[in-house]
Amino acid sequence: MYYNWASDPEVTRYLTWQPHKSVEETAEILQQWEAGYSKNEFYQWAIELNDIEQPIGSISVVSLNEDVQSAELGYCIGKSWWHQGYTTEAVEAVIRFLMAEVGAGRVWSQHDVANPNSGEVMKKAGMDYEGTLRQSLKDNQGIVDSAIYAKISHVALDEEPEEEDQTSGASVTKVMAEDGTMKNVISDDTMEYVGILAKLELSPEEAEAAKKDMEDMLDYIDLLNELDTTGIEPMSHVFPIENVFREDVVTNGDGSADTLKNAPEQKDGGFKVPKTIGE
């Protein structure tokens, strides 16, 4: 923990605690965590990378509100493992646990607006952007604006869950844009999956441009779905055209006899030509 993330000032830049100055300080924190496991409301996990069998970060419930069944998440990960999807995977797993096992109806998190990468993790983990609270958070940068993201349990609201377009781990989620409308957001995993299906090797710039085009198309489809089509029968063409068939009757023949009249030599109803192979 100390060497992989807790002592790195870049990791703690937008967090609420200072980097650890010694291994002993980290050991003391770990002892406090171990003691906390005796309490039912204490939730603290390590993010472990199987390949090296070492913890590379941590994720925890930093606040609980049982009255509204709400749990706030906090997390961090070592710099060597940034932008590789590990944090998103951990957040998704903890959200599933809190909703299925603990009974949380709302799991939320917040980040310094100067740290948008943390917001990307929240969005990819299925959280929706709820808004920004001005001057509401104090971290190592001072008093800052805080962006709020949350995932709501449909079971807690007694609602049917919205369908999520998923194919082999790829996903499309919806987030609220600054203008208040819901926009489609395609994950990087989806773009990778589409590239595999289409046998395309896209550069990062090409993949980003393609993702933007696909998101715009999905947004337009959502717009079309809002149209009232009550009483309108489905159609396969914009014009009422029907196929007109004629009888399949030969009228002028195939003309092969007239064609063969021009052949210098004929054989078996065809042109006879000199051999070009096998001589």
From TrEMBL:
Keywords: ATP-binding, Ligase, Nucleotide-binding, Protein biosynthesis, Transferase. Residues 254-279 are annotated as: Disordered. It holds the Pfam family Acetyltransf_3. Residues 2-127 form the N-acetyltransferase domain. One of its GO terms (molecular function) is asparaginyl-tRNA synthase (glutamine-hydrolyzing) activity. SUPFAM superfamilies: Acyl-CoA N-acyltransferases (Nat) (SSF55729), Glu-tRNAGln amidotransferase C subunit (SSF141000). One of its GO terms (biological process) is translation. Its EC number is 6.3.5.-. It catalyses: L-aspartyl-tRNA(Asn) + L-glutamine + ATP + H2O = L-asparaginyl-tRNA(Asn) + L-glutamate + ADP + phosphate + 2 H(+); L-glutamyl-tRNA(Gln) + L-glutamine + ATP + H2O = L-glutaminyl-tRNA(Gln) + L-glutamate + ADP + phosphate + H(+). Allows the formation of correctly charged Asn-tRNA(Asn) or Gln-tRNA(Gln) through the transamidation of misacylated Asp-tRNA(Asn) or Glu-tRNA(Gln) in organisms which lack either or both of asparaginyl-tRNA or glutaminyl-tRNA synthetases. The reaction takes place in the presence of glutamine and ATP through an activated phospho-Asp-tRNA(Asn) or phospho-Glu-tRNA(Gln). Belongs to the GatC family. Heterotrimer of A, B and C subunits. This is Aspartyl/glutamyl-tRNA(Asn/Gln) amidotransferase subunit C. It comes from Eubacterium ramulus ATCC 29099.
